[in-house]
Amino acid sequence: MNLEPAYLDLHRRGELRRRIDSLRALEDPCQLCPRLCGAHRHSGEVGFCGLGHMASLARACHHLGEEPPLSGTRGAGTLFLAGCNLGCTFCQNHQVSRTPSAGRTLGPEALALEMLALQVAGCHNVELVTPTHALPALMEALDQAAAQGLSLPLVHNGSGYERAEVLALLDGVVDIYLPDLKYGDDEGALIGSGVSDYVAQSRAAVLEMARQVGSSLTLDSNGLARKGLIVRHLVLPGGLASTSSVLGFIATELGPRTSLSLMSQYRPPTGVNLPAPLDRPLDPREYQEAEALLECWGLTSGWSQATESRDSYVPDFTREDHPFEGMASDAEACSCLTKGGAGRAK
Hints:
Order of helices and strands: HHEHEHEHEHEHEHHEEHEHEHE
Helix content: 25-40%
Strand content: 15-25%
Radius of gyration: 19 Å
């Protein structure tokens, strides 16, 4: 098995630089995400996401709360980007996702140093959290970091609200995709995230991700993810996420071996007024019903969460040390859907 990250070959051939130029062209007028807001970000305008042409980094840290093949024993090397192109009303990262100024505005050189620092700290990967609106700057940083010795797998952790055409520019760049599939119908998406085209956009995006890296997960001899796809689905109160529709899509279009992370951690963020049913925590019975649907759809690869662990996943970005300080590791708070967990891809 070749364990070299995909982006290193593109960097050596100069192809990564050409991809960056294509992404920059999509940034002004901005067409990076399905909102197609058209902001002239190179001229100082900001898009829906609140950003111009620079990235805003909320925090760089090791993270033990991701799925076990990502967190391992030393943590995923997470770069939490401030701002967001989706803007869910219930976002657990709302301290930074709704306030781009909550992060540090950094150029590619500084972002490259952050990536390299995560490698020096022993993290198992570099994970870009909500990267869509900052992709040009992040890819420039990746190119510079690769020139300076970065050799960790690259994880793209996004909301699922992506343009498949933009993701195509990341073919051979991203090693592991970690998308959300938040909703199975657009009525719920409109209530929870204010968009009426989430289902079509997210499903096309995830199919493009699977085309690039496969729909299963490749692990190394230590059980760490090296390539592939993990799909996340957060069960919402009152059936707002249309979980059965989401699981049905995964089973029929991606395949039953797809690694699924079924999350029970929903709770209303503090200080945010939300409409019903988002104004209450998830009832354990609602999560049990979602778990029962896994068997109905034949999905047996991935992880589920203990419902009582939801408080462990709420970050506090006002901390100066670590936004998840004191939380349980995901290995302690989740269980495998099968005895072998995600398994090793053939």
